[in-house]
Amino acid sequence: MTGPDGRPQSGLMGSRPSQEPQQTVLLLVLGTQVQMLENGLLRVPPMGWLSWERFRCNTNCKNDPKNCISERLFMEMADRLAQDGWRDLGYVYLNIDDCWIGGRDSKGRLIPDKERFPNGIAFLADYAHSLGLKLGIYEDLGKFTCSGYPGTTLDKVVLDAQTFAEWKVDMLKLDGCYSTSKQRVQGYPKMAAALNATGRPIAFSCVWPLYDHGLPPRVDYKLVADTCNLWRNYKDIQDSWTSVLSILDWFVTHQDILQPVAGPGHWNDPDMLIIGNKGLNFEQARSQMALWTILAAPLLMSTDLRSISPQNVDILQNSLMIKINQDPLGIQGRRVIKDQNHIEVFLRPLANQAFAIVFFSRHTIKPYQYSSSLAQLNLTDATMYEAQDVYTGDTISNLKQTTNFTVTINPSGVVMWYLYPLRKQQLFQH
Ligand code: GLA
After folding, report:
1. Of 33, 93, 116, 298, which sits most exposed with the smallest number of CB within 10 A?
2. How far apart are the CA of 146 and the centre of ligand 1, in A?
3. Cα 126 to averaged position of ligand 1 atoms, centre (Å)
4. Looking at the domain assignment, is residue 44 inside a domain?
C-alpha cells in the first residue's frame, strides 16, 4: 500500500487488510502503551527550507517588511523554491519556525499572528501545495516556545495536532523549551499518536534528545526513533564555522551511539545548512554540504533564497551530492580515519555497493596533500573501483585496493568522492 506521497506505508495508518488485524494491532498498541509514529514518511532525509537560523524571531514588519516572520517571507521563499530549481531537486519542505503564533481562540485553538499572517496558515499551505511544495510548522511542548510564544502543553497536544491537520500542514517541528524530561517522554509519543490519528501524513521533527543532553541513558534512542521522523540531538547551529565544527565534533565523538539509530524514516538532525549566509567561506560551505550528506542529515537550508550567490546555489544544487544524501539505504556515514596531520576521512555505504568518501582537512593555512589507498580505508570488496569527484566531476579510474592516490584538500575544505565498483563488463572495456 502506498501513502498519499506515493511511498509505501506501514503500521497503524498504512496496512489495514481487514477489520480484525487492525483491531488486534490497536489492542496491542494500547495494551503495551506503545504509541509509535509509523507514518511511512521520510524514507530519505527531508530537504527544504527552514526560517530559523537566517530569519530568527524578526517580527518587526514595520521596519523590515522583507525579512520579518510573515506570510510574505514564506510566499517569497515558496516562489524561489519552485522557480529556481530547488523543488525539482527535492527541496520541497517550506518550514515555518518559531514566532508565528498569535494566541488561541475561544475554543483554545491556535491562531497565527493576525498582522503578519493575515490569511492564516491554511492559506499558506494551499499556496505551498499549489507550487508542489509541502508546508512545515513549529510548536513547543512546554508552556511557551523557545522565543516565548504560546506552547502546546500536554492537554493541548491532540487539539493542536488536529488544527495542523485541518490546515493541511505536512511537517511539525516540536520544540522542548519549558518542558521537563517527564513531560517530553509523555508528550512526544502523545503527539506522534495524535498526528497519526488525524489521518494526514505529517512528518514529525522532534527537538527531544537535545533537551536531555543528547545521549543515553537519559535519551532512549529506540523510543525516539519509534516516535519521530527526525530529531535534533545537539545545540542550535549558528552562522559560523566554529558552530559547524562543534556540531560535527559532537556527532563524531558519539558516532557509535548515533550512527546505528538513523535509517529510512528516522534521522539524526545536526541542524540547518547555513550555506549562503555570512559565516562560511567557499571551502567551508562545501564542507558543510559534504559532511551533512555523509551523515545522512536532513538538508534544510536556512538562507535568503532571493539573494543567494550562484556559487552557493551550485553547492546546494549539486545533483550527485543530493543523490548521495538521498540514497535509499539510508545508512549514516562514519568517520573512519583521524590522521595525525589534521585530516579526517568519512565513509558512507550506498546502494549498489557504492560509497561516498569525504576527505576533510582541518588545516587552516594551506592546501594539504593526503595520500592513501582503498585498502587503507578497508574498501576491499571489489577488484576495481572508479571514483567521481562530487564537486569537480573528474573521474578517477582504475582504483585497485593497493593503488596509491593523493588528494589535495584546501584549508577547512573537502574532497568528496562517489566511489563505485566496476562490473565485469566495465572492467573488460577498461
Ligand atoms: C530552539 C531550537 C531552534 C529554534 C528556536 C526557536 O532554540 O533549537 O532550532 O527552533 O528554538 O525559538
Report:
1. 33
2. 6
3. 25
4. yes
